[in-house]
Amino acid sequence: MNGNIVTNKRRTLIFLNILISCIASSMLATALTTALPAITTDLHIGVSTGQWLTSGYSLAMGITMPLTAFLITRFPTKRLYLTGMSAFIAGLVICTIAPTFLIMMCGRVLQAVGNGIMTAMAQVILLTIYPIEKKGTIMGWYGLSVSAAPVIAPTLAGVLIDLTGWRSIFYVAIVIMSISFVFGIFAFDDVLDTCRKKFDVVSFVLSAFAFGGITLGIGNISTYGLFSAPIMAALLIGVVGGILFAYRQFHIDQPFLELRILKYKEFTLSVLGSMLLYLVMMGSSVIMPVFVQSILGFSATTSGLVTLPGSLAMAVFSPMAGKMYDKLGMKKLFVTGAACMLLSNLGMVFVTMEVPLVIPAVLNVIRCVSIGCLMMPLVTWGTSHVPAHHTADATALLASLRTIAGAIGAAVFVGIMTMAAKKSAATYGAHALIHGLNITFLAMSAGTLCLLAIAVFLVKGEQKKNHKI
């Protein structure tokens, strides 16, 4: 079966199932940011170690996603999607009983593997079963689940933590995912074409070394220092692994991940834009709860409420962005989204200990609107310029690189804040942490400025999009 003969009823059922499962799985990507202070206390670990429950999750997802390009074309759609859901549920169960950080990390890795499969498949499925004129709109609604859910998760997590403890986050997710799993048994169908394809073990191992080495290396710079042996070794492994992986893909008959699609300019720009977006987005999602709880001393519930208006703004704007993309093209959305994100980050540079909480809450709203402008439209725009038979490779490559960028962002920006606070302790005293936060958002502003430059100077205006199918 393929997307051209899927009935409207079946298409709607599949979309609803994807929406439910992706909301639950996406929430777990950031829900632990609010829970981090409580988790570090219960498990007797430091913040730099605890943040790997978020960035390590992204790392495992990033390593899994290149594999999905092979899995999607090799195994029936329904069976593979349900397998991803099963892995995610198993990871949730482990986290509910985990007595130590290592066991909990194992549960997070299982969740990441399941989420990596579901996320990559969801995009390929939706881009396949819906006609061209509806892709922007449907991806906008899908974007609501994968972008608003991670932003609203800290709000819900804050309330749950204060009421019943941090493990209740996983109990709620288990209930939602179990309902979605049962629904998926009846709703899903094999909508993607499959073929006999040999699994290239060497390419998979090289991709794991490439993504893992670079992420671990950059993510631990704040702990060991840039020129320390562990960091240099990890970065060397990552770079060499990446070069060997790319070389192999260009010289084998059936690439594990088709990298030749990067010759399409629009797709390459969408990859770069998505990476910069995730770098800043995931960094700010980790920093904001630390700012409200650890620096200002408010509760987890208050921390969540600071991000709630932004979540609501994104819920309203994400579907609208999809429709705007269908009508206006990418240029205007790209420029507007990048400019809004730059404005929100620059605003946080000037935040002080005495600032009313409404100010960071408003800045977070602006940030969330920018995410709604960019996240799914970038995917739709980039993949629409790639031949249809390479959609699985395009979504897997884009999702992998942006997820790895998110993991790097979470680790790097926490490191910048920590180092800046330590170095300025003698000068700023009790205000050293807030100074570290200001420096961190200044660094985020630099990354966002690069994003805006891509939008202004490299993306061409489109009166009517030409979808290359």
UniProtKB/TrEMBL annotation:
Q: Which InterPro entries match?
A: EmrB-like, MFS, MFS_dom, MFS_trans_sf
Q: Record's Gene3D superfamilies?
A: MFS general substrate transporter like domains, Multidrug resistance protein D
> Looking at the UniProt record for this protein, which Gene Ontology cellular component terms does it annotate, in alphabetical order?
plasma membrane
Instruction: Identify its membrane topology class.
Output: Multi-pass membrane protein
Give residue ranges for domain Major facilitator superfamily (MFS) profile: 14-463
Kindly report the protein's main subcellular placement as a broad class. Answer: membrane
Sorted alphabetically, the keyword list is: Cell membrane, Membrane, Transmembrane, Transmembrane helix, Transport
Membrane-traversing stretches? 12-32, 52-73, 80-103, 109-129, 141-163, 169-189, 201-221, 227-247, 267-292, 298-321, 333-351, 357-382, 394-419, 439-459
Checking PANTHER family in the record gives: MAJOR FACILITATOR SUPERFAMILY (MFS) PROFILE DOMAIN-CONTAINING PROTEIN, MAJOR FACILITATOR SUPERFAMILY MULTIDRUG TRANSPORTER MFSC
This protein is called: Drug resistance transporter, EmrB/QacA subfamily
What organism does the UniProt record list as the source? Hespellia stercorisuis DSM 15480
